[in-house]
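Need tokens for this chain, all 421 residues.
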Amino acid sequence: MTAATAQDARLGRGAIVLLTVGTGLSVANNYYVQPLLGAIGREFDLPAGQAGLLVTVAQSAYAAALLLVLPLGDLLERRRLIVGLCTACSASLVLMASAGSEALLLAGAGLVGLCSVVTQVMVPYAASLAAPDRRGRVVGTVMAGLLCGILFARTVAGAVAQWAGWHAVYWWAAGMMLLLAVAARAVLPTYREAGAPDYRRLVASVFTLFAREPVLRLRAAYGALSFAAFSVLWTSLSFLLSAPPYSYSTGAIGLFGLAGLAGALAAARAGRLADRGLAGAVTGATALLLFLVWLPLGFGGTLLPVLVLGIVVFDLAAQGMHITNQSEIYRLAPEARSRLTSAYMTTYFLAGAAGSALASLAWARWGWTGVALLGTVFGAATTALWLASALRSRPPEGSCAADAPDTAQAGTPDSPESRTP
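Here are the structure tokens for all 421 residues:
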């Protein structure tokens, strides 16, 4: 199948289910480590800040793969790419599961981060095969699987580690990725974009797209700030919950992933709202929540119900922002969705790696108060960016909708929808 026939393509129910589950399983590989940091640190005698480097290494490697591997989705046949990456990810997880030293563990985390980019191959693959009027809904459904994978990763990792140790988590994950490779080969349709440039030009065009598309730059900035805040919370939460006054086990810490599940599932509706032209309203609401939620999260250092409430609201805001961002950038250049994803997600995970590193530093020096203040800074920056964008795009006084050019063809780069802040 080529881009020429993509408009007539439809994803079957089985393929949508597999992509939804597959994105969840794939992205989970980068998040199993978060509730395990305390246990891993104790085994290798690492201080909390140094154990947190596992998250930074994985996210940095993931960002590199987003730039260097993900664009291949516009060049190679995508089903074959998905199968190959799932298989390589399984092998990398085996290395992490059998790691007996900090060096091997860091190497395994980096390789897992590289191969887990298959998640971001699946999302534009689904968008390319979806009917245009259902694209936001399909992306929202697949992204719901991704978000559940992020959240369930912590719960599954905590439960398995409590029962069989943290090494078992990665043996289990390796088996799941191998099964996913087999299922993808059997269920997914083949798809390949037509007219893609060679690899060198393909990677260079990621930067060209970023320079050319203001909507992409704006959405990348929103994503970077929100995911930095996301990483601040979830990297340091394990340190908070494993220390007094909570002193929870890895199994109990993993259960906190469920606290954000309700928020993440509600955020999946953001794709439908974007289809209705409400992306700007969703962006403003989620930006404000990302700022205000750090007040209850700050008090959550000693008040468990307040902490749980803050996690639910935070995940609703962060994932609602992310789904809206992706729904908007996929309207810009249908033939380059993998490269659009590469530009957006590279920025996203570089900011996440920075957020994780800063969170480890803030926790080591100032405890949970420092973490909450750091998160507040990222939330305030997100809100300020939205306000500046909204003011810049507001029509001058005295103008009216009748004076505007005809923009009935929604979803094109020049439509109001694509310029929505």
